[in-house]
Design a protein that fits this description.
5-stranded parallel β-sheet; alpha/beta; 269 residues; single chain; 10 helices
């Protein structure tokens, strides 16, 4: 570690999940590195051991760093380096009390996540994954004009909940590539008006989530997972969506009340 007087090979780095080979090679070249070769999520007990053994922990969302893990003795770790933007899987205040800094990696997966969001819309609305399963099962019986008809994104209204970097990237692809009308809802934030990452000029901000849900043919969630956003999509808000509307959640799972979603889906069938 240049300028610190510390040999980087004296720094123990633990990587909790498998990373691309080139990344692991660079880490191993620079540091005293330990890798999770099983690529299985570590248990709370194992995470405690990691804190006692490592100076730096490179972690992911699959590692659940609850407060009790930091309430242990002989903590060696000074940095939790999270691979990803969201840190809702880390008890940040408990980490701070333990003297551990937490970092994340904003903006490295913006376009990739937007691609996944659009891909999910195409897979479901065009019934692509359903059609592939049908073909691979051996059930394909030839072209039939009315068989497994899907729906187009073109001309639909896309409601985006959360309008950060990823939400705006989805808006640009949906608008420019498919001619979708964009409505969005998010808390007031000056970063949303950053011209370097702006969404489509024609995108319309709506004042409430309720209004967005009522007006959208397709809803895509891009808000962070916080106590305020937990189960933001619930039985009441789901009831506001048009009968033929689609809901996609490229954000965190707990933004949606899955039990309410299951009931709503069954009721519409």
């Amino acid at each position: 570690m240049a300028g610190t007087g510390v040999n980087s090979k004296d720094v123990r780095v633990v990587v909790t999940r498998k990373l691309p080979a080139a990344v692991e090679t660079e880490i191993a070249d620079k540091y005293d590195a330990l890798f999770n070769r099983t690529d299985v999520a570590l248990s709370p007990e194992q995470l405690v051991q990691v804190l006692q053994q490592a100076d730096v922990v490179i972690t992911t969302v699959t590692d659940k760093w609850h407060a009790g893990i930091f309430d242990t003795t002989s903590i060696r770790t000074k940095l939790l380096a999270n691979v990803g933007v969201g840190v809702n899987h880390i008890a940040l205040e408990a980490a701070r009390r333990a003297g551990i800094a937490v970092t994340n990696t904003p903006d490295v997966l913006t376009d990739d996540t937007a691609d996944v969001a659009i891909g999910l819309m195409l897979m479901i609305m065009r019934r692509l994954s359903e059609g592939e399963r049908h073909l691979r099962s051996g059930a394909w019986g030839g072209l039939r004009p009315t068989f497994m008809l899907g729906r187009t994104l073109r001309g639909k209204t896309l409601g985006i909940v959360g309008y950060g970097r990823i939400g705006r990237a989805v808006a640009r692809v949906a608008h420019d590539g498919f001619g979708m009308k964009i409505v969005w809802h998010a808390p007031r934030d000056p970063r949303i008006d950053d011209p370097a990452t702006a969404g489509p000029v024609s995108a319309e901000r709506v004042d409430t989530l309720d209004e967005l849900l009522r007006r959208s043919d397709v809803v895509s969630l891009h808000c962070p997972a916080t106590s305020e956003t937990r189960h933001r999509i619930n039985a009441r808000t789901l009831s506001l969506m048009p009968e033929q509307a689609y809901l996609f959640n490229p954000a965190r799972g707990d933004v949606v009340d899955e039990a309410a979603r299951t009931v709503a889906l069954q009721e519409r069938r």
